[in-house]
Amino acid sequence: MKTLLLPLVAGAALLLGSCRQTDTSPTAGLPPATATGAETLGFHCDGEVWTPAGQRCGLYGCRDNRVEASSYVDGRGRRHLLLTAERTDGRRQEYFVLQLDSLAGPGTYRATAGGPSATGAEAGTKLYFADSRQDRQYQSRPGTARITITHLDTVRSIVAGTFEGQLFGLSGAGTVQLGSGRFDVLFNR
């Protein structure tokens, strides 16, 4: 009986252990609002939770999609911030950009870039979202998006904050609403 019980218990443990997988689905929920350099980003896009997910594969292998952040001070002494993130799976290939062109510290910054003839490559403060499988691109217009910096630590290279806004189709059609946006990232790592 003991010899039969041991393989049965081992088999059950193996089966149950294989069911425990980390939920990497964007519907798992938004990341907590933190200011520790947790490397998180998430928002609601037309009511659906969006977080970086999936992998990008190329000639040199695959890498997990995650939020990337960079910051620099230009020749006029203005700090710029750029956050990018991707989400890919069998049916999606989406890309998100948060761009600030004059980051002076904690506070609220309104979108300044874009307009009806925007191309997505404009300088300025903006939110941008693209779905390349659907061939759709959206960008905020002046005054239609708000980015709030809640924490900026240039010594430890941490920036955290929130964002929301309405983005307009660059082709002239459609809008997307981004809400409950939050990020907590290390820049220039």
From TrEMBL:
This is Lipoprotein. It comes from Hymenobacter gummosus.
